[in-house]
Amino acid sequence: MEIITAVKGFKDILPEETEKWRFVENVAREVFSRFGFREIRLPVLEKTDLFKRGIGESTDIVEKEMYTFLDRGDEYLTLRPEATASVIRAYLEHSLHNAQAVTRLFTIGPMFRRERPQKGRFRQFHQIDAELLGLDDPRADAEIILMLMHFLDRVGLKKVSLELNSLGCSSCRPAFRNVITEFLQGKEAGLCDDCKRRLGTNPLRVFDCKSKECQEIIRGAPHLGDFLCGDCREHFGKVTSALEEFAIPYTVNPGMVRGLDYYTKTTFEVTTEHLGSQNAVVGGGRYDRLVQELGGPDIPGIGFAVGFERLLALLEVPESASAPPPDIFLASLGEQARNLAFTLCNQWRLKGIYAEQEFSSKSLKSQMKKAGRLNCSYTLILGDREIEERKVELRDMKTGTQQTVSLDDLDQHILNLIKER
Ligand code: HAM
User: Fold this and answer.
1) How far does the centroid of ligand 1 lie from the alpha carbon of residue 314, in Å?
2) Residues with beta carbon inside 6 Å of ligand 1?
3) What is the pLDDT of residues 141-170, one digit of tens each?
4) Domains in the chain, ordered, with CATH?
5) I need a labelling partner for 56 at 20 to 30 A (CA). Which of 14, 141, 290, 319 fits?
6) Considering only CA atoms, which residue is closest to atom 32 of ligand 1?
């Protein structure tokens, strides 16, 4: 019978990888908490309208990539394609804004987008997402970027670029929209069908289109940066000077619009040359209208999401992030010895020791080989004869020395040895 495999674009994370995942998560938790961020855990399923309203109806994500289905209760539900809309839904639903004026939240978990799977692009992927709500101060933008860059540095990510842009606000973007519409209207015939349609609904999306023809056309387009209002220009200037104060290198990428509609003012991506076409490891930006658009009060926000798989693909995770070897391996010869090994092994585990034992009746030689392979610190050799004599052999695997220990003192002896290390 054929085995049933995982769904295309959905990956298993095997034990040798989970250690690296935990290492990255631990660094994120430690760094983020020092900046005052608290963890929130959210459901993966939300009402479809949350993303339609939040991310925008004419984005690729909402138009083509969401896993949406009609639930038995006749309600459209969607596997979350990103975390920001869900964080704000929870923030509003639980009135977190009433408890404090500034709220810093982070969440780690799977997201779902039905994109074409390829290197660095999956249908279930994971994000480390951080959101700072309640501050429109440009120093908040710099603070969250500083935290992000510090986190990337702490996990050991090298050779990345931070790209920044400003997408303006509701007072300067409409004017730019007219400019870009006029520019694209002259070139409409060369645009892909999606962008022809977007020309009427959301012309800025053309900047983000993956088709080569559209990319070629947009290369010559005017940039939003040249049409920013005084307030947005000043905001951006303050963000960049705060980043300079912390010696964070950045480049301004005036063509970066991001793939979600909620952004205002500062947007940013962290990119690398080592991921092929999927070069963004992190995406983020300010969204001063989103909380209101999701039915809440006028509260500004800014955040980012790190693509977990993309980050891991770039990392050399330190040795300390791999599974620790057993403290002790119990080799046993004979049925009585195996019974004792089973008892001791599990008693020691209950006392906080990592112990492994051999269940099969393999030769002592092959059990010793296994102990070596496991890289354990000590091996205990138990045979039926030794048990009768109430003495066992304990080998220190690092020095190769062996000593005889009385069965009566064994428990205390092992506890002392291992706990003292
Ligand atoms: P995003 O740019 O759509 O932004 O995604 C952020 C990151 O998630 C990307 O830079 C990438 O590393 C990773 N990612 C996205 N799609 C995939 C995929 N199909 N396979 C693997 N990795 C992927 C957001 O999601 C925003 N919510 C970020 C944000 C938070 N903005 C403000 N707050």
Assistant:
1) 16
2) 82-84, 113, 115, 120-122, 125, 127, 129, 131, 259-260, 280-285, 303-305, 307, 309-310
3) 999 999 999 999 999 998 899 999 999 999
4) 15-172+228-319 (3.30.930.10), 324-420 (3.40.50.800)
5) 141
6) 303
